[in-house]
Amino acid sequence: MADTRPSASIEAVESGLAAQGYIASRQIATAVYLAQQIEKPILVEGPAGVGKTELAKAIAAWRGMKMIRLQCYEGLDEAKALYEWKYAKQLLYTQILKDKLGEVLGGAPTLEAALNQLHDFGDVFFSKEFVEPRPLLQALEQPAGCVLLVDEIDKSDAEFESLLLEILSDFQVTIPELGTVVAVSPPTVILTSNSERDLGDALKRRCLHLHIGFPEQKLEERIVESRVPGISQTLRRQMVSFIHEVRTLDLKKLPSVSETIDWARVLVLLQAPELGHEMVKDTLNVLLKYEADIEATMPQVSTFIAKASRQNVFG
Amino acid sequence: MRENLHRFFRAARGAGVRLSPAESIDAMRAVSKVGFTDRAILRDTFLLTLAKTQDEKKALGDCFDLFFDQPEPQSPPEDGKADEQDAKGSNAGSDSPGETSGGDEQAEGLGQLAQMLLAQDRNQISAAIANAASAASLSDIRYFTQRGIFSGRILDQMGIQRLRDDLDNLAATNPALAERLTNALDGLRGTVRDTVSQALMLYGREEAENLRNEILRNAPLSRIEPRQVEQMRHLIRQIARRLRERYSKPRKRQRRGHLDVRRTIRRNAAWGGVPFLTAWKRRHRDKPKIVALCDVSGSVARVSDFFLLLIHSLHEVVDDVRSFAFSGHLIDVSDILESKSPEEAMAEIMSKVGFGSSDYGSSLADFEDEWMGAITPQTTVIVLGDARSNNLDPRADILRRIAERSKRLVWLNPEGRMAWGWGDSEMLRYSTFCTVVRQCATAKQLERAVSDIVASYQ
After folding, report:
1. Model ipTM?
2. Cα separation, A104 vs A284, whole angstroms
3. Shortest CA distance from A204: residue in chain B
4. What is this structure's pTM?
5. Are residues A30 and B32, on separate chains, in Cβ contact within 8 Å?
6. Residue B17 included in any domain
7. What distance in Å separates residue A3's CA from the closest CA in chain B?
8. What is the pLDDT of residues A207-240, one digit of tens each?
């Protein structure tokens, strides 16, 4: 087994994602690489806004595949996620074909014979033509493969998980009336969760488990660099360092990467040369989403800014 | 390397990562793709395939570092021999001439171990320890009590017997060398002890934890030492999780039952019995409602502490829990328990009503005055306390009314049955109105009691 190959291809994943504007940490890249190699779904956990959904989008864009998204919510069921029979079409067809019934049964001398003839036609209405594919079935049917994003799986009910198990382990699904549908080419599956509910062991066992936390300072700077091109290096370093300080506070909702990017955009828009006290106070609402959090952070702002600019000098 | 992987999986289980064979197969497949060369990638690969939670990732990461920092035990005997010769040659050159020559002269008649120790070659010694460790199957170590046995076995494997003989001989002929050897032996013992401790950390944690939990489960809650409180909390949460897993699933599954043929036909009579509308059997199910009254007076405070913790960890199963705490008088503590972290909540409850001397009569009166309405015919009322009312009026009549209004009245008493009715215990008087009276002094009994209560609603 060539020893240099795997790490090289992990780097390929990294650069491929980077080309789509997604700066992946080494662990994320390894997960994506492994998912491809051993054909397993990735279960991504972590706080909101660290780029779990973005990862799926980036993979799809990088590999030039379609992305199919299934947003989970409480009460999501088979009919919404997997497939549904087109009942209206079935009814319409029965009405239209009513007259033909006589022809079909016309020759039958006895009731039994008529019944047998009906049986031969019985399956017509439960055939592929009457199935309305929902995201999961669509994903299996993509001839060129796709990225299937099962978003916020923790929002769905526990029963829904078991529905996913067959798809996740064998990339197939069984429709009672039709039989088993096997994926044309196995989709890359990304599941995301905010850990609102503990997921079942069976589900976890079928997935690679990736935890994306808040990125390290260097990584976050690179993310900002790639997402907000116009920002100066000084400002970038200061604001990221400032955010890292804010994350050490005990807040209701810590600022995540998406908020970092928003804030960077705002600062660029306001043409801030570097982090200033007034500027931060005015724009803190971009970063923090609760009044209480803003109040808790206000007194610390000066200290954090000082720290951030100090770090800028030495770092 | 395969052998090494298996040992790592075992160590990972020891570290508390739940690993099924399927997962280890996945990990092996993944490893075969990424190879062993890059340790950082290997580490990430294990974290991705084996660990399923953030805690497990941390434990597994630590375990990985510990495991791969170990000296590789695979050095075949022939190699070892060659090393030995090598080491000896180089050592003779590098050491100060006087000492070495003296040592070597004396070392002629000595055993292998003695020679090795005198040569002071760390690599060689650690290789020898590793070999002896695998010969003594050190990875089978499970409990800390086995440390001595395994240290002994390893030293035996290394030939300590011969070394002792050598020491006896030397003591007469060359005391200086004997002393050097004794010192070296002490050092060796230390190293072996460390090796064994490390192995215990790697392989023994799970068993040790199980044993400790088992002891803890059966230990009287009221006599838990402060250092064990945190472990106990952990255990109680585990119990709560288990109860939750056991009881939350069927309740959701059986929302809709079988087709109710009779009702379906009746409903569709208008269409000549063609079933347009279906009717389904619904299993009637009581929603669990629990009202918990906890004595938090000094004598039973710790037990009720754990009890409240358990009840509130069970929230996902039991929708409707109201908790009350009392010693001299009674307050509603549901909100405190729900809004705060368990530790803070307990502290607040204790500061409000805790540690007083208990007065069951007035506490029951408080309950009747304000919260009697909380009890419906579906409610299970749980009273936790020792029923010691300091010879005040027990007001058993209120308890009777509570029993009459509720579905069940369960009394959990942390005292042994022998003590009931003695001294100021009113237990016998109260127990006539209770549906169930249980002794509840250990975590195990607590689990049984709560499990029975929840099960009765299934």
Report:
1. 0.81
2. 74
3. B52
4. 0.63
5. no
6. yes
7. 6
8. 999 999 888 888 999 999 888 888 888 888 888 9
